[in-house]
Write a structure and sequence with these properties.
Elements lengths: L2 H22 L13 H21 L15 H21 L16 H24 L8 H13 L15 E7 L4 E7 L5 E3 L8 E5 L1 H8 L7 E4 L1 H10 L4
Parallel strand pairs: 1-4
Antiparallel strand pairs: 1-2, 2-3, 4-5
Length: 244
């Protein structure tokens, strides 16, 4: 896992997020996050950046809550977001490769790789949100980055006990990026989903599409491009898969 790649992506995504939010204005509605204004998006993402940076900078090994964002608005809020993003980049770029601190998903080989990856995807999805508030064509998501984000979501977030995607009887869902060599098989049961990176065996439903659109769809920003098989299983995923 190339930490430098994630840091480069994080740097660009944060820059684009701030620029889109600035152009949209803090009062603009965020269509992809119903009920939010751009100010909510900036406050949330900036607070997450500072929370993440704190674990790495302080080598903090236990969970701790996020601090509340300051009561600033307008241009000051955009500046505060930019400062939050800058601080995060500085902390991650300056951290020792073997830094030990709190993480919350399986997969990455180190805490530093975890936070670089997690914050890159956090920022990319919220950059899409900011651009939806601004209007116009969104910045494309690179195929390889989108594939990695799907993998993080399926084999990271939904491997946790907190995943609400459950079925009373065993079911099999397949996820396929049609423009990449990337297929996942998700086995559902009363327990948390178990996902493997393969397309072996039969599946009762398949969610498919180009990696970029599939990535954003699985993060509940766009409709799933293609659904085949049992529509009830697709609906179950749609209704219960939001990460909380």
């Amino acid at each position: 896992m190339d930490t430098s790649w994630f840091l480069e992506t994080l740097a660009e995504e944060g820059r684009l997020l701030a620029a889109a939010a600035e152009k949209a204005g803090v009062d603009a509605a965020v269509p992809t996050c119903p009920g939010w204004r751009t100010r909510d998006l900036l406050r949330h993402t900036g607070a997450v950046h500072r929370w993440a940076a704190g674990f790495v900078a302080d080598r903090w090994t236990a969970p701790r809550p996020m601090d509340e964002p300051p009561e600033v608005d307008g241009a000051e809020l955009v500046d505060w977001y930019r400062d939050s993003h800058r601080r995060l980049l500085e902390v991650l770029a300056g951290a020792a490769p073997d830094v030990e601190c709190f993480t919350f998903l399986p997969g990455p080989p180190s805490a530093l790789a975890f936070w670089a990856r997690r914050q890159a995807h956090e920022t990319a999805v919220h950059r899409f949100d900011a651009e939806s508030a601004r209007g116009g064509a969104p910045t494309p998501v690179a195929t390889d980055f989108a594939v990695d984000g799907i993998d993080e979501l399926l084999r990271g977030f939904h491997a946790r006990p907190r995943s609400r995607v459950r079925t009373e009887t065993p079911r099999v869902l397949r996820v396929r990026a049609t423009d990449a060599d990337a297929v996942w098989t998700v086995r559902l049961s009363p327990e948390p989903p178990v996902t493997v990176r393969d397309g072996l065996g039969d599946a009762e439903c398949e969610l498919a599409g180009p990696a970029e659109r599939l990535y954003l769809a699985l993060w509940n920003r766009l409709p799933v491009p293609e659904v085949s098989g049992d529509p009830a299983l697709a609906a179950l995923w749609r209704d219960t898969s939001a990460v909380v």
